[in-house]
Amino acid sequence: MFWWIIALSIGCLNPEAGVDPIDEAIIRCVQQNARATYAEIGKAANLSASTAKRRLDRLVATGAIRGFTAVLDPQVLAWRTEAFVEVYCRGNPTPAELRRALEGVPEVVEACTVSGAADAVLHLLAESITHLEQAIQRVRATEPVERTESVIVLSRLIKRPHL
Asked: Rounded to an integer, what distance in angstroms lies between the CA atom of residue 104 and that of residue 127?
């Protein structure tokens, strides 16, 4: 099963950024179904399909909508092993440097800089413990990573879509 979401820049949803209630209706529609037709988007925002297309194109052009992404159900890929990994770095890398360093590890499905002792927290998906261990080893071998601490997900209690 595939889930479709839209990546949004929340800062662009305020009136100063030029997003009005019609744009918000368009955004809500494509959040629910990024594959919605222009007719469906227009219906949700009380617009014609051609006007909905122009408005959606403007939202993309201005960066209010940053992209459309296919989000796969990890169960379909048989990637059922999850872990959260705290990353501790040597020195003081910038978030951009850390992002570039971690982009080459496909098992990293999310990475965030955080407050506290760790420099970042990663969410990893893998098909097995062996696969997970290999991915964590690749993270550890990445400059500027000094060390990691991992916790493996046993069961997922709540999973909500987020922006």
From this structure: 18
In sequence order, the 6+-apart residues with CB closer than 8 A to the CB of 55 are 22, 23, 26, 45, 47
Count CA atoms within 13 Å of residue 88 on its CB side: 8
Q: Is 10 helix (H, G, I), strand (E, B) or coil?
A: helix
- CA–CA dist 124, 150 (Å, integer): 10
Which pairing describes strands 81-89 and 145-152: parallel, antiparallel, or unpaired? antiparallel
Instruction: Calculate what percentage of the chain has a pLDDT beyond 70.
Output: 83
Q: At residue 78, what are phi and psi to the nearest 5 degrees?
A: 65, 25
Residue 26: phi and psi, rounded to 5, are -65, -45
Q: Tell me, letter by letter, the H, E, C secondary structure of 66-92.
A: EEEEEEECCCCCCCCEEEEEEEEECCC
- The encoded tokens of residue 127 equal 């098909």
Name the pTM for this structure. Answer: 0.60
